[in-house]
Amino acid sequence: MTLIPVEFHGVHTVGPEQFTCVLLRWAEQNRILPIWLSPLAAAELDAREGGYSPRRPGTVDLLLDLINRTTGSVTAVNIISHFEGVFIASIVLADGEQLDARPSDALLVARALELEIHVEEDVLSQVAFFVSDEVMAEYFDLHFDSDRPNGGEDLSASGDAEADADFEEMMRSLGMSESDFFRGPGPRGASEDDGGNDTGATRGDDEEK
């Protein structure tokens, strides 16, 4: 297993349906990995990113308290697999044990403990895709000075034309096109309404949209 560090770039809404996701960036390849979340999970992550602290401990607070009382600490947070639109994350404990987790819970842990997030290289190769710096600046207010491979010439979104075609087909199955993905108004807090469970690339952990 080869784990690649990725940059966390906040919670965003995309497409006409205003789906919520976290944007992770594979800086070396200038590729973006969206982790789709339910509106409720996105709202909690976005609020905590803004400095909000709940009056009573939330699920992630209880999890971290339990970990601290038993194994001592968390050493790593990784996204290790992606299958049929669903991501699986892993929370690595100080004693070497690994807990399978939903991406939203793993991201909350990573941000609470200020841990770097890593993604399995095969997952990035399969799911992450190229987005131009201009598009990232215009739609997400994110600005990068990328040193792109191949002299800055992008022959395909991911460098793998077949993978790109598969991704486009997956987006169409949601009723979304590439232009829909970048139609969002830019970063903003997600709704606090409970819209279901986390999603992976396209679907929830245990339910379809």
From TrEMBL:
For molecular function, the Gene Ontology terms on record are: nuclease activity
Q: Where is this region: Disordered?
A: 148-209
Source domain of life is Bacteria
Q: Which residues form the BFN domain?
A: 3-131
The family database entries (PROSITE patterns) matched by this protein are listed as:
BFN
SUPFAM superfamilies registered for this protein in UniProt:
Hypothetical protein TM0160
Q: Which InterPro entries match?
A: BFN_sf, Bi_nuclease_dom
| Pfam families attached to this UniProt entry | BFN_dom
According to UniProt, the name of this protein is: BFN domain-containing protein
Could you tell me which species this protein originates from? Corynebacterium comes
